[in-house]
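Hi, here's the filled form for the chain we discussed.

Project: internal
Contact: R.S.
Residues: 141
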Amino acid sequence: MLIFWSQFSKLNAKIGKITKKMATIRFIREDLEVQCNPGENLRELVMKENLQLYGLKGILGNCGGAGQCSTCFISVEGGTKNSLSPTTSVEEEKLKNRPENWRLACQTLIKSSAVILTKPQSPPSNLQELKKISENKKLPR
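And the returned structure, exactly as it came back:
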């Protein structure tokens, strides 16, 4: 029985490593890296980490993640092409006149590690410096 349990524990540990490959989301404005599970919603991750996602308009009235208010803007500053879920039809409509790398956090699922700028509509004055610093740090896959 003890031998069986030992083999089961080793197998379970191997399966856990295979199925639980964590993603790292680097928030460059906040200089913070957060580990999360693939499939997590980006807005929910930001809220869980108590990061500031909304500008004044979003603070005063956001839709709570339903994709209706267009206030949870983020910009994708690094990662692979497939780091995040494909844009949704809601995003295509709401982001028509925005830069190509902008997303709505509430519509975005994390697939693998990525570099994110929160509130890109009011970028920090040292954004280029923050991007360079982030580029010099290897992002886990």
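Let me know if anything looks off before we file it.
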